């Protein structure tokens, strides 16, 4: 009898255990469903709003930023656009309201009309009660009645303010991101190293591997919290023998075996402490070789490295292969100092800033051996920040999704 009681008393415990396990699994599934649902909700909202702008010219889009944000650890998509808009605004508002009725929880959360420098600007926020998915700053070129009153010398109320106030928009819109990468670290005299280390904002330094100076430069740079380190890996340039190009230590050649490439990469990584990623030095032949880049990138993935394609040739497959293999990647937008004069570097830096404002982010590469580069960067740093741009590391603006073919 005692045995039977013991057996029957175990049944409630087993049932309780099964119930708790199923409850846990249900809550886990519910969590992941809600997380993916939030991202889907944001994408649906953005897609519906974008339908209103299908016929707009690219020249009318002054700033376009897309990024993934998080709310309670759940990802969602966010878009900001600053653009010219000359069509009837009420018609646009009505169209949005109708399309958003089909999306649960989403509506126009904020709508403000401002007179700025004689033009009407609309600041609009669309999303749920707690999360904004789409933020718009629409600028009408049509002169407002206030502007017309000024030009016709009509009296205005004493407290009427028609002075342009840009701060309201700068506080609302996300900052564009600018990543500066400095190549050839280790090949420069120590005096130039110290000068570059005076830069007050974030910079990513790409250090040559396997040099006597590699570890020293890494240790000096690592002492500064606003600097990040990657490896500036030499790769084979096109026709280097015919062009009498001197190859750097640890260069990767397209005729190397898989084992030779991996062994060389291991030596490079071991020679540069604190490195988080890699970009290519030269490499017009190397980055054009699908076979070599496939070996390089698959190995970098095992080391949790990202890859920055210096894009030294238009035929590069580096960033494309990285996207297919699933390694975080980025691609160079502008070389700052191919012409080593301050005038030329300033021109290229201006080009890079415009690109960052247009795309929301941009990557520029300069070189540690060129004093004109750091002189221009130091001269422009505050001016750039005033344009609603922040300096970031390359690792902060990596792509993780496969490219759309």
Describe the structure.
- The protein is of the alpha/beta class and 405 residues long.
- The chain folds into two domains: 56-172, no CATH class; 176-397, TIM Barrel (Alpha-Beta Barrel), CATH 3.20.20.
- The chain is 39% helix and 25% strand.
- The chain contains eleven helices and 14 strands.
- α7 crosses α8 (290-302), α8 (290-302) packs across α9 and α10 packs parallel to α11 (371-385).
- The model is unreliable at 30-35 and 143-172 (pLDDT under 50).
Provide a short characterization of the protein structure.
This protein is of the alpha/beta class and 405 residues long. The chain has helices at 2-50, 89-100, 145-151, 167-172, 190-196, 214-222, 258-271, 290-302, 318-325, 342-359, 371-385; strands at residues 61-71, 74-84, 107-116, 119-127, 132-143, 176-185, 203-207, 227-235, 277-282, 306-309, 329-331, 334-335, 361-367, 389-392.
Helix content: 25-40%
| Overall outline | globular
Strand content: 25-35%
Main CATH class of the largest domain: Alpha Beta
In the CATH classification, which architecture of the largest domain applies? Alpha-Beta Barrel
Major pleated sheet: 9 strands, parallel
Series of secondary-structure elements, N-terminal to C-terminal? HEEHEEEHHEHEHEHEHEHEEHEHE
The CATH topology label of the largest domain is TIM Barrel
CATH homologous superfamily designation of the largest domain: Glycoside hydrolase/deacetylase
What's the number of extended β-strand segments?
A: 14
Unreliable spans: 30-35, 143-172
- Separate helix tally: 11
**What is the total domain count?**
2
Q: Could you say which structural class the secondary elements and strand pairing correspond to?
A: alpha/beta
Measured between the Cα atoms of the first and last residue, the distance is 73 Å
Radius of gyration: 28 Å
- Average of the residue pLDDT scores: 83
């Amino acid at each position: 009898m005692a045995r039977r009681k013991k057996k029957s008393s175990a049944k409630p415990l087993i049932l309780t255990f099964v119930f708790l396990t199923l409850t846990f699994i249900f809550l886990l599934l519910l969590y992941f469903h809600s997380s993916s649902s939030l991202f889907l909700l944001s994408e649906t909202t953005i897609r519906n709003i974008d339908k209103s702008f299908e016929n707009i010219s690219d020249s009318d889009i002054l700033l376009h930023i897309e990024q993934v944000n998080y709310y309670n650890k759940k990802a969602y998509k966010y878009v900001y656009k600053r653009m010219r808009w000359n069509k009837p605004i009420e018609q646009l508002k009505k169209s949005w309201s109708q399309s958003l009725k089909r999306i649960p929880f989403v509506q126009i959360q904020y709508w403000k009309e401002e007179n700025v420098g004689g033009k009407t600007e609309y600041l609009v926020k669309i999303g749920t009660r707690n999360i904004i998915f789409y933020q718009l700053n629409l600028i009408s070129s049509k002169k407002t009645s206030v502007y017309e009153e000024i030009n016709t010398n009509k009296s205005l109320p004493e407290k009427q303010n028609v002075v342009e106030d840009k701060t309201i928009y700068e506080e609302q819109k996300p900052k564009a991101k600018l990543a500066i990468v400095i190549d050839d670290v280790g090949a420069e005299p120590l005096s130039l190293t110290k000068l570059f280390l005076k830069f007050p904002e974030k910079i990513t330094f790409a250090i040559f591997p396997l040099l006597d100076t590699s570890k020293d430069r890494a240790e000096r740079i690592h002492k500064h919290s606003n600097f990040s380190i990657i490896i500036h890996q030499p790769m084979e340039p096109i026709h280097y023998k015919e062009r009498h190009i001197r190859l750097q230590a640890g260069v990767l050649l397209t005729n190397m075996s898989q084992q030779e490439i991996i062994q060389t990469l291991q030596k490079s990584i071991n020679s540069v402490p604190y490195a988080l990623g890699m970009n290519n030095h030269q490499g017009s032949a190397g980055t054009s070789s699908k076979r070599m880049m496939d070996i390089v990138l698959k190995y970098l993935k095992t080391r949790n490295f990202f890859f920055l394609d210096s894009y030294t040739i238009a035929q590069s497959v580096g960033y494309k292969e990285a996207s297919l293999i699933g390694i975080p990647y980025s691609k160079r937008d502008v070389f700052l100092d191919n012409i080593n004069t301050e005038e030329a570097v300033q021109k290229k830096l201006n080009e890079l800033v415009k690109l960052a404002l247009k795309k929301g982010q941009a990557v520029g590469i300069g070189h540690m051996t060129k004093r004109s580069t750091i002189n221009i960067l130091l001269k422009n740093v505050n001016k750039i920040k005033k344009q609603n741009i922040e300096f970031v590391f390359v690792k902060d603006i990596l792509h993780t999704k496969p490219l759309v073919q």
